Amino acid sequence: MIANLGLRYLTMAGYVCTIAGGKGGVGKTTTAVNVGAALQEAGHDVVVVDADLGMANLGSMLGIEHRASLHEILAGDAAVSDALTDAPGGLTIIPGEQSLEAFADADPAKLRKVIKTLRNAYDVVLIDTGAGLSHEVAVPLGLADGILLVTTPDDVAVGDTVKTAQLADRIDGDVVGVVVNRVTRHTDIAEISERLGFELLAVIPDDQEATAVEPLVLNAPDSRAASAFDQLSESMAAMFFRGERAADLETVLEETWFVDETDDDEEEEDESGGVFGLFS
Ligand SMILES: Nc1ncnc2c1ncn2[C@@H]1O[C@H](COP(=O)(O)OP(=O)(O)OP(=O)(O)O)[C@@H](O)[C@H]1O
Ligand SMILES: [Mg+2]
Question: Is the CB of 160 inside a 6 Å radius of any atom of ligand 1?
């Protein structure tokens, strides 16, 4: 990591961050899109790469049509420049495609060269990955300056995230921290954080309304989830550009993010535990 950082400062190459997490549907793509859009809005040039080769959905989450895909680059049928696609807020993405045929032709090993090209042109390269522990996940873990793990609070997701961290460790990947997504007032964050054993970079509230309009940091900027993603992005910027360590950053979260207005008094008794334990 130190060697990586040194090289990065010398060459002024961009920071490569892989966003990973063992379980499907925990919010990896949502996190990539929102951190990307927030960093772009803050004035950094960001590209988000959909390296979830089996189940690519970055483009469709943003409602974007594309000319060429990562799959075509990895199959040797397109250049990186062909697949650079404009996304909301000035963000750039490299989308994937969904056909099984495209998946079969794409060679994950070629991703190294793609990322090398991108890191020379962008301040930040965010790599969105798929679930599981396959080769197509291992490759981007091995290419990253820093790995961000995303999990939801449930036991299975946390357990799968521990496995992703173990895979990262085997290939000398550097996990910079964890995001716990879809948190409610009942979530025992302290316990999850202890189980994971990594710095908690952000706690994102469950916010279904906001996540229907991605990127929510642009389309629902006043939402609770957008506030949380903005905070996360500031922490990421501190790590990417100022070399700060996650351990030195504060996990910023606000009590109001976790108050569900539809909750009634019968749930009051939970207030001593759950996420509110962090505020006492
Ligand atoms: N904080 C949140 N609150 C409510 N819904 C959310 C939140 N974060 C993500 N979601 C929703 O959860 C679903 C899965 O999110 P997303 O696609 O980002 O997960 P993923 O980890 O990338 O999944 P996959 O492993 O399939 O790629 C989406 O419908 C998304 O809108
Ligand atoms: Mg995804």
Answer: no
Cβ atoms of 119 and 240 closer than 8 Å: no
At what angle are helices 155-170 and 189-196 packed, to 10 degrees?
30
CATH code of the domain containing 125: 3.40.50.300
181 Cβ inside 6 Å of ligand 1? yes
Q: Which atom of ligand 1 lies closest to the CA of 33?
A: 18
Determine the residue of 98, 161, 211 to mutate for testing ligand 1's pocket, defined as the one with the most ligand atoms within 8 A of the Cβ atom.
211
Which domain does 206 fall in, by range?
A: 2-257+265-277
> Which atom of ligand 1 is found nearest the CA of 225?
1
0.85 surpassed by pTM: yes
What are the Cα distances from residue 262, in Å, to 46, 183, 253, 258, 267? 38, 16, 21, 12, 11
Total number of domains in the chain:
1
- Residue 90 φ/ψ region, left for φ over 0, alpha for ψ in the -120 to 50 degree band, beta for the rest: left
The residues that bridge with 46 in the sheet, in sequence order, are 124
Mean pLDDT by 10 residues, the chain (280 residues): 50 91 96 98 97 95 94 96 97 95 91 97 98 93 97 97 96 96 94 92 94 95 97 96 89 82 52 65
Ligand in closest contact with the CA of 27: 1
Query: Does residue 187's CB lie within 6 angstroms of at least one atom of ligand 1?
Result: no
